[in-house]
Design brief:
The complex is a heterodimer of chains A (about 575) and B (about 325). In chain A, about 65% of the residues lie in helices and about 0% in strands. Chain A has about 575 residues and is an all-alpha fold. In chain A, helix 2 packs parallel to helix 6, helix 2 packs parallel to helix 14 and helix 6 runs antiparallel to helix 7. Chain A is globular. Chain B is built from 7 helices and 11 strands. In chain B, the strands form 2 sheets. Chain B has a 6-stranded mixed beta sheet with strand order 8-5-1-2-3-11, with helices on both faces. In chain B, strands 4-10-9-6-7 form a 5-stranded mixed beta sheet. Chain B is elongated. The chains are: A mainly alpha (about 575), B alpha+beta (about 325).
Chain lengths: ~575, ~325
């Protein structure tokens, strides 16, 4: 095959293999071992839980619209925010990013035919629905009401059934995460197509590698904490129960040893997705590829040694407070590298303001606010004032909603054509973005001041001096709730009847765009070929790219033509 | 780059610095400060806000600039500039945040030492923000030696007043060991060093006075401490900041900072009133109020719970007597 002048890579002649076309729609309801089916199963299931968690959040904000506890009442309020947080973390952000996008994209991006352990992959997914069923059942039996942190001794006295349901569901979710992590690490390290070095991988794969390492190291500690808590709850042991000589602070250490890294498990894949989306829609190579890749690993390492910054007021010793403050602050450096590199990627580009790009840029903008408030929280003396206040609520939502959820939306708008073969409607995508962006900021910006002024979190009733800001925040929450509607309608309608997408509607250069939309069962028609680097925008002439596309088209037609007689 | 664009860039840098400095000092995000350590907190917070505002303006400014300047023009089907790195730039934007973080970390340690004293984190740390009080701490002045948690080998401070604090669902109980007074309100004399010895009866709570910028978890089974000097007369809310149950949001106490004379008068009135009849606010306890936490849900915990709620709500003298007999049944730590 011809080697083109301006191509930085060899174009090898691929071996064409026979592949059957995609299976029918009902495979999404089966125990499929196809990573793409599992990815979509994850995304759809977790989006359902996002709607449930969002409904609970709206109920929480409805309660807080007035200072009195007059909507949900005290007990139900605690159940609502506990379930809201648990669902959003364990049934939406983590499984949507790792299970959904990770599963769908990683094998495609590295030119693999599937994940390393396809059956394990299916098992990991099928642990998610029981997790959800247990948690939602607790809504009707007895809601866990000790917050998503579930600190003892409160969690030991606030209702055994609800608490135990909560523990069991988190153990299932954790098991699912660990299985997925093993699968991703093996897939990324061992299943890359021949000729693809680590430095040739798309940045999303680097981010998934870092997130999976974190999951594998941290999640078992949470499981340990929860099993011990379960013993205290059901068997009368006293690991964490002070009335029997246990230490509740030990639980906090174990809980945060997982739950702080969990923040990075929730944000690293988004970092990766943003690193994919910005170059495509800005038509520029990602700026500082290596710095972004290695900063993911740096965040992975540092993320494991910062957990005690959640415990600056828990009576931790001085040396520990100072060590964890410095470690926490240090994370600002690799994170800063990423943010500046994204800005440099936009600089000098030709930015197409499609919905994916709007959410991608919205992510950068909002995440910076979350990062800056994070620095305030890292500083011990400053954290002591704002710990457990609405300032923290504001910060974590800027990171997890302005960050992770904006990232998930960006990802859906970007890869929907690949996943479904159809385009989403751009107009409704923009309406969705504007409503989300405006609602989000109205909802969460005032919380910074509320917390600094003296409003604690997790309260159903509050000082009337905070009424105005809370009312504004609740209005924002309702706008945010409404903002999901245009997306929901758009996604369902477009999946069924949207215009056909074609293989590569964004003219992107990563491998997943070289196959059909949606891709066939084993991803590629014949062996995948690495035509260009993942971010070589502006490096090839239009003729070269057209030539690549034509080559791929020919290969596919060949493969399909040969497959035709066997399938009929 | 042309001279004009250099001038524009420098001008924008100056504007940005001025805007950050102004907002760092004028954000009105904090309540009034009413304790000796609060201005230290405020000064660190203001510095951090200045830096944060600067970074915020730079990032959002660049983003907006890119949106306007580098939007795809109609009919343009080409790609952007294929620039994929710049080592010098990358070194700069790694080094600058690292230096900022280092400075902020050192400043935070300094304020932490000044507020909490006695912190030995492996040597003496000097920065531009070294404050007089931290010099005292380094000199080993016991008046400022303080640690929020009792650790082996650590010296406690020498406060003018010690108050024992008990947190319980959903109230605070304050005991003045010198007079034996037990109250549901915390009265403190102005400009005196106060130490709170805190424990919880049932679940975790957190003692927070936003105007003092101080917070400490109150944990069953261990004693935690807070030490401060109130510097403003007035009434301040005591907020429980750690989720402690469904009525967590209504677990609020009141802190009064009185002149020393008013404080003495209040204490005497309460003691006399509690010994006589008609007091609904305070009672004199015959037992040592520092005792092991009763098991949650046990009769002891419940009586302590009832005790403080009755005080808050106001009860008749006969109720008070029955309460005293209840509290007498609490075990003493000796």
């Amino acid at each position: 095959m011809t080697q083109l002048q301006d191509s930085p890579r060899l174009v090898a002649a691929p071996k064409v293999e026979l592949e059957l076309p995609a299976e029918p729609w009902w495979r999404f309801f089966t125990f499929s071992t196809d990573h793409k089916v599992i990815g979509i199963q994850y995304l759809v299931t977790t989006f359902f839980f996002y709607l449930v968690g969002g409904a609970l959040a709206t109920a929480v904000r409805a309660e807080l619209a007035t200072p009195e506890a007059d909507f949900l009442g005290f007990e139900r309020y605690n159940g609502a925010f506990t379930l809201h947080a648990t669902i959003m973390i364990f049934l939406w952000i983590v499984p949507a990013l790792v299970g959904g996008f990770g599963n769908y994209l990683v094998p495609l991006m590295i030119g693999a035919r599937d994940m390393a352990f396809p059956k394990l992959n299916a098992v990991a997914f099928w642990l998610v629905p029981p997790t959800g069923i247990l948690l939602l059942a607790s809504l009707f039996i007895e809601a866990p009401a000790a917050g998503w942190t579930s600190y003892p001794p409160l969690s030991l006295i606030s209702g055994k059934v609800g608490e135990e349901l909560w523990i069991l569901s988190i153990l299932l979710a954790g098991t699912s995460s660990i299985l997925a992590a093993v699968n991703f690490i093996t897939t990324i390290l061992k299943m890359r197509m021949p000729g693809m070095k680590m430095e040739d991988m798309p940045l999303f794969c680097w981010a998934m590698l870092a997130a999976s390492i974190l999951t594998l190291i941290a999640t078992p500690v949470l499981a340990g904490a929860l099993i011990l808590l379960s013993f205290d709850l059901l068997a009368g042991t006293a690991f964490f129960n002070p009335s029997g000589g246990g230490d509740p602070v030990v639980y906090q250490h174990m809980f945060w040893f997982y739950s702080h890294p969990a923040v990075y498990i929730m944000i690293l894949p988004v970092f990766g997705m943003i690193s994919e989306i910005l170059p495509v829609h800005a038509r520029k190579p990602i700026f500082a590829y290596k710095a972004i890749a290695y900063s993911s690993l740096a965040i992975c390492f540092l993320g494991l040694i910062v957990w005690a910054h959640h415990m600056f007021t828990s009576g931790t010793p001085d040396w520990m407070r100072v060590f964890f403050m410095i470690a926490t602050m240090a994370i600002a450096v690799p994170t800063g590298i990423k943010v500046f590199s994204w800005l440099a990627t936009l600089w000098g580009g030709k930015i197409h303001f499609r919905s994916a790009m709007l959410f991608g840029m919205g992510f950068v903008s909002m995440f910076v606010i979350g990062g800056l408030s994070g620095i305030i929280l890292a500083s011990v003396p400053l954290d002591i004032h704002v710990h457990d206040t609405y300032f923290v609520v504001a910060h974590l939502h800027y990171v997890l909603f302005g960050g992770s959820v904006f990232g998930i939306y960006a990802g859906i708008y970007h890869w929907f054509p690949k996943m479904t073969g159809r385009m989403l409607n751009e107009f409704w995508g923009r309406v969705h973005f504007v409503l989300t962006f405006v609602g989000f900021n109205i909802c969460f910006l005032p919380m910074h001041k509320l917390g600094l002024m003296g409003m604690p979190r997790r309260v159903a009733q509050y000082d009337p001096q905070f009424a105005d800001l809370n009312w504004i925040s609740s209005v924002g929450a309702f706008v945010l709730a409404i903002s999901t509607l245009p997306f929901l309608v758009n996604a369902i309608y477009s999946w069924v009847a949207g215009p056909k997408a074609g293989d590569n509607p964004w003219q992107a250069l990563t491998l997943e765009w070289t196959t059909s939309s949606p891709p066939p069962h084993h991803n590629f028609y014949g062996d995948p070929i690495l035509l260009t680097g993942p971010y070589d925008y502006g490096l090839h002439s239009k003729e070269t790219l057209d030539y690549f596309a034509a080559q791929l088209q020919t290969l596919r037609e060949l493969a399909l033509a040969e497959a035709e007689p066997t399938s009929s | 780059m042309s001279a004009i664009s250099n001038i524009i860039l420098v001008g924008m840098g100056i504007l940005l610095t001025l805007a950050s400095l102004w907002y760092g000092q004028n954000h009105h995000l904090l309540p009034e400060s009413a304790a000796e350590s609060a201005p230290l907190f405020d000064s660190l917070f203001n510095s951090t806000m200045t830096i944060a505002t600067g970074i915020f303006l730079v990032v959002q400014g660049v983003l907006l600039y890119c949106i306007v300047r580098y939007r795809k023009r109609r009919g343009d089907k080409g790609d952007g500039d294929p620039n994929h790195g710049n080592v010098l730039l990358e070194i700069v934007w790694t080094a600058v945040p690292a230096v900022i973080i280092l400075w902020l970390g050192l400043a935070s340690i300094d304020v932490y030492q000044a507020v909490y004293g006695g912190t030995d984190v492996g040597g003496h740390i000097h920065t531009a923000m070294v404050m007089e009080s931290s010099h005292e701490a380094e000199a080993g002045d016991p008046g400022y030696a303080y640690t929020p948690v009792v650790l082996p080998g650590k010296e406690m401070g020498q406060p003018d007043l010690v108050v024992q604090v008990q947190g319980m669902q959903y109230a605070w109980l304050f005991t003045y060991p010198e007079s034996g007074l037990v109250a549901s309100e915390l009265h403190l004399p102005l400009n005196k060093r106060v130490r709170l010895d805190m424990t919880a009866l049932d679940v975790n709570h957190a003692f927070w006075v936003p105007q003092f910028r101080l917070k400490q978890d109150v944990i069953p089974g261990r004693e935690t401490h807070l030490e401060f000097v109130p510097t403003q007369l007035g009434q301040y809310p005591i907020i429980c900041a750690e989720l402690c149950g469904p009525y967590h949001g209504v677990m609020a106490g009141q802190l009064f900072v009185d002149t020393p004379e008013d404080f003495e008068r209040w204490q005497q009135e309460q003691v006399l009133a509690a010994r006589g009849e008609g007091s609904t606010l305070a009672l004199v306890s015959d037992f040592s109020p520092v005792h092991p936490s009763p098991r949650p849900g046990s009769p002891e915990a419940e009586s302590a719970f009832a005790h403080v709620h009755h005080q808050r709500l106001g009860v008749s003298p006969s109720d008070l007597k029955s309460l005293q007999s209840h509290s007498g049944s609490l075990p003493s730590a000796g």
